[in-house]
Amino acid sequence: MIEMQEVYMTYPNGVVALNGLNVTIEQGEFVYIVGQSGAGKSTFTKLLFREEIPTRGSVEVNNKDITSLKWKEVPFFRRNIGVVYQDFRLLPRLTVYENIAFALEVIEESPKSIRKRVMNVLEQVGLKNKARFIPDELSGGEQQRVAIARAMVNHPSILIADEPTGNLDPETSWEIMRILEEINASGTTILMATHSREIVNAIKKRVIAMEDGMIVRDEHRGEYGYEV
Ligand SMILES: Nc1ncnc2c1ncn2[C@@H]1O[C@H](COP(=O)(O)OP(=O)(O)OP(=O)(O)O)[C@@H](O)[C@H]1O
Predict the structure, then answer these.
(1) How far is the C-alpha of 119 from the C-alpha of 125, rounded, in Å?
(2) pTM across the whole model
(3) How far does the centroid of ligand 1 lie from the alpha carbon of residue 120, in Å?
(4) Rg of the chain on CA atoms, in Å
(5) Phi then psi for 110, rounded to 5 degrees?
(6) Protein residue with its CA nearest to atom 6 in ligand 1
């Protein structure tokens, strides 16, 4: 579960990015975060994996206030959160297999079990046959699927997707959505910041609309809306 209470975020340059957020997201929900550029969507998601710390307010993830985590506690906490971005962010010199194995938290695991986990997650995204490729040899949609596999390899309870279809053509975007829906169906909470009116209006989910750092609309099976 995610719970934010009275969250304010002012960046060091004085920009007020979040202006009093109160929100609860239950385990297993699929939530779109929509709003114009600069509305605060990315900042909202960054608070959830301790990329940013709010100026004020509490951010609870699975019943723990993460604003007070010590730096040394952050890596362990982050194992439980997967993140994917618009620009994939794969390591260019590593193969698909290595990109995913690199993200795996290896705690006294045998090479055989590591291989099994990586291949399982590659199978989930339909890329088992591309394990030896490097990112440059893949299409954008395939690269995003690798990024999703990497985000899921530690079985996080939450997957954050910041405009995951922003660099993809419509057909490929629908493929990525299908994978995200499958991941959600297995119980993972998904938060997806997006500018895609088509996707939000076609695949109905909870919609949180932001404006000037505030939540201006929060609807179950909502629409993208006219004002954003
Ligand atoms: N690291 C930063 N330092 C200073 N200001 C920032 C920083 N990151 C974001 N901002 C500012 O905070 C506000 C909210 O930005 P944020 O990236 O959260 O918006 P967004 O809704 O995700 O936008 P987009 O749709 O363009 O990704 C904007 O005014 C932005 O310029």
Answers:
(1) 10
(2) 0.95
(3) 36
(4) 18
(5) -75, 150
(6) 11
For residue 47 the two structure tokens come to 């608070």
Alpha carbons 140 and 122: distance in angstroms, whole number: 16
For residue 112, being part of any structural domain is answered with yes
Joined together, the tokens standing for residue 180 give: 């995200």
Q: Which residues line ligand 1 (CB under 6 A)?
A: 11, 13, 15, 17, 35, 37-43
Residue 134: which domain range? 89-155
- The tally of domains found in the chain comes to 1
Please check whether residue 118 lies inside any domain of the structure: yes
Ligand 1: which atom is nearest the Cα of residue 42? 22
The pLDDT tens digits of the residues spanning 98-141 come to 999 988 876 667 888 899 999 999 999 999 999 999 999 999 99
Q: If you count them, how many residues does the chain have? A: 228
Closest of 181, 97, 180 to residue 146, by C-alpha:
97
